[in-house]
Amino acid sequence: MQQYKRIGILGGISPQSSALFYKKIIEKHYQKSQDHYYPEIIMFSVNFGRLKDYQNNSDQTDYINEIVKGIDALERAGTDFAVIASNTPHRVFSEIENKVSIPLLSIVDSTAHYAIKNGYRKLLLLGTVYTMKEEFYKNGLKAQNIQAIVPTDTEQEMINNIIFNELILGDVENQSKNIVLEIISKYPVDAVILGCTELSLLITDRDTDIPLIDTTDVHAEATLNFAIS
To answer: What pLDDT shows up at residue 16?
Structure first.
């Protein structure tokens, strides 16, 4: 029987991807162990609307504190470490990490390690406008000698609208899938980062010959491995 650290998930950003993240951890345990001795998991689901309001402010103090409050709740509940089941909050990962007492795993690091393992050096980064416009993802990958490029501003807005107006509501539209696939086809890269955990609800490896880095799947794998270590 595998012994695990107790996993804390900061979820709700959005509920759709958080449920998928939890499910992937359970599935990956079963694939590895073929038993039902699943890791103990505690999730704190944040107030998504309040967090979105804070995210739009130039002062990110409230945004950071809201996430820290959730992670502190996970610590009080007895978790040994925590993960954030979303890409966008990693824009302030270092600030969050400095304010909490339990270890945090970074989805950017998980993505970089996966890219290195598979020999990917030039990547197309898709996600929310925050993830694509800001430098936190690109800098995290650059530190591992990986180049990340992003779509045009117009394409970024299209992807962002699909995420917030459809995917976080669980609405998966074929027209939106075709839009994203058309954007992907324009860029000669080794692989594409689905840098929003909801994007894996829209497109999969079955939809394109270009390798996809599903950050939900990659981070769930890293989470389970860390819980074992």
So the answer is: 87
